[in-house]
Amino acid sequence: MRPIKLIISAFGPYAGETVLDMEKLGKSGLYLITGDTGAGKTTIFDAITYALYGQASGTTRDAGMFRSKYARPETPTFVELTFLYGGRVYTVRRNPDYERPAKRGGGLVHQKAESQLTWPDGKVLTKTREVTAAVEEILGIDRSQFRQIAMIAQGDFLRLLLASTEERKEIFRRIFRTQKFELLQNRLKEEYSLLEHSRQEKERGIRQSIREIRMPKEREEGLPEDSAELSGPEAMELLESLIAEDQNRCEETEKQAETAAEAEAEINRLLGKAESEEKARGQLEKQREALSQEKASLQKKKEDLAREKERIPEWEALGAQIADIRSKMSRYGELEEQKEKKQRNEQAITETEEKRSRFEASIHSLQEALEKGREEQRAIGNPQAEGQQAENELHRSRDRLKRLKAALEKQGEWNTLKAKLEKAQSEYERAAEKEDRLHNHYYKKNRSFLDGQAGILAKELTAGEPCPVCGSREHPHPARLTEEIPEKSQVETARKEWEKARQQAEKASGKAMELRGKTQARETELAELGKELLGACGTEELPQRLGQRIQDEEQTLQSWRKKAEEIAERTARKQTLEEELPRQEALLTKEREELAELEKAAAALKESVRHQEETIQRLSESLEFSGVRQAEKALQELESQKNLMSRGREAAENAYHESQERVRALEGKVEALEKQLEHEETEGIHQIRERKIRLQQEKERFSREIGEIRLRLDRNQETLTRLREETESLQKTEETWKWVKSLSDTAGGTISGKEKIMLETYVQTAFFDRILECANTRLMVMTGGQYELKRRAAAENYRSQSGLEMDVIDHYNGSLRSVKTLSGGEAFKASLSLALGLSDEIQSSAGGVKLDTMFVDEGFGSLDEESLQQAVRALSELSRGDRLVGIISHVSELKEKIDRQIIVRKDREKGSRVILRTD
């Protein structure tokens, strides 16, 4: 990539549009970018980097800081670069975010960042991300790689020269992207940690399983004090012997339990037989006593049955009375029905009269409400027209209030800007005063230094001999030697202090100019707005008048709001009446019709009551009882007496027959029990029960022993299975753990007794060796064959990471020493060589990318004449072929050695400008 043309507008220290025709610099060789400190030499590289990638070359400046403080408000900020790559010409243009004057009206508007890439065939890209991606695709490198390849900055690469292994590793990681090897190191370390944790967990699991081994009491004495100290195989061997012993013991105890169970079954048979005989004797006595009592009861029940049979004629007379009452029950029902109808009709007459009274009251109330509503409807009138007027006034009042408040806010913003402007002007005055004071101080120091030099020369003058300065042989007014001559370093310090103060004054001036422009624009805008809202009005009285107008307008707005609310209420009420009055009229008509129907129904009910009273009188005269309830009550009493007599006779008969059956049953049971006990003779029941208790105790003991053995067997078999699985799993984990640990130690550089070089560092050493090979071809030229850089082969110790340390070979005396022992000029040569070597390696690792232009920034001031010659010669070798190298420096000796120059001049008021010199 070779820049052809660069256009910088309102960018950094360049106030106007600066066109740099870099085609005139040629295709190869050296050229110098020179000028005052702060004039904008490095900004040229910044502009190229920004045009390509949308970012500055360094890390201290971002795109939002590129707007020139010297630029006029109407001057646009942008960078346009035309460059050649692969024989094809591309043009890229970008501008950052910044504030610019509005094209219409006053004030400032925000100019968004924009990008544009024009391809050789005329195709254009305009999206920022697409432009940046296309540039990276064309050049084959991103911004970070471009900065490392195209810009050699002494300070950055001096740090690389003097860095430790850890610091150099971080630098190479960013440049050569070796993070993946670090990720592999960390992954192996994490995998080892996980396996180590898993191994320890499995060992803890085995120890826990060993602690769960169950031992019989007679074997516990032979177990080690801490059974958990047994190994897995030892524990499994112990478990297998315990399981075999418990299986044999369980079989023997089960046989003994079976024998005891057979003996218990025989005892149970004998005990059942003895208990049956004892129970039979007790039942015989009870049945004999029950038989005697039941025979006496049978005689009494026989007498009761005879008395009940004597009352049969009385029972038959009750039946005749019941039949007579039942034959007249239909007439009693008719009488009751007529009474109920008469009562319902009388109740209906009462309810009808009550309804008629309610309807009359409701009709009267409806008539009054209807008249009142019609009167209110006439009084409301037509509020719609008034509502529209109020709404229009509200809208106008709100609009006026909004504009007044906006004007008051702009007044506050103007006050804030004015205060900032006053502060900035004060800061500028102080900075300018400081600059003048330091400039006078520097001028005096420098004049004293020059006068002192002249005085020294004058002291050596001899009459008749030529002056070494002007060549004259006469010396009429030789300079006097002052008493105190300042050192050159003091003069340089005074110059730097003045230069720093000058930069601060320029910065303060730019800030004040920017604030003055914003304040004036806001003041103009505010004056126009105040004239529009208030008429003729000064800026100073504007806040008070705006505040008063806002209060008046708020009161007007509140008044119209209340009126609008009142009109809205009237409108809603009118709509309600328009809906309600027709409903009330319809309801009034309906209730009048219903009142007429009620009056007809009442007359019909009264006629029915008169007919029902006549029927009730006729039926009452022909019946014994006054009503159906009295007749039913008498019928129930007679039926109850008859039923009671029937149930008494039936109960006496049933009781007699049941007693007969019980006597016969008891006689049979007594006879059967007597026959059962004629020939029974068994062992004593108490002896049998004692024998059974002893057998049960023995069975329970066998059962407990079997339960304990089986529980121990189950637990130990589970533990044995688990131990086998855990031991096998531990063996597999330990096998993996061993080789992963070996890999992790190797990749992490932690093998005991060996040099600590991580995998990533080992990979980086290959890059480092190639960088040093390229660097030494130039360092040998710049140092006349004296120095050669070499990567340190052996570490200082085995405790810290190593592999990227660097020494220097001094071929004049054959010594090998640290690069930190180099002097300032020697260190610059070494760091420049190292930077150039790194640039070559980056281009190679980026796929053979070739950049036809390179920049070297500062560092030459520390070189003597011979070293400067050597450095220029090395850079000339670098620029042979089709490579163009730009040296950014203010060293005066370089101006004499390099003909092609870009000279940057700085104007205190107008910003920087560029002069291109090619002869």
TrEMBL record:
Record bears the keyword Coiled coil: yes
UniProt xrefs under InterPro entries: P-loop_NTPase
Stretches of the chain forming a coiled coil according to its record: 550-736
GO molecular function, a single term: ATP hydrolysis activity
Ranges annotated as biased composition (Basic and acidic residues): 205-222, 272-292, 300-311, 333-345, 352-361, 369-378, 472-495
Residue span of region Disordered: 205-231, 271-311, 333-400, 469-495
An individual GO BP term: double-strand break repair
Protein name (database record): Nuclease SbcCD subunit C
UniProt entry keywords in alphabetical sequence: Coiled coil
Protein family membership: Belongs to the SMC family. SbcC subfamily.
SUBUNIT field: Heterodimer of SbcC and SbcD.
Source organism superkingdom: Bacteria
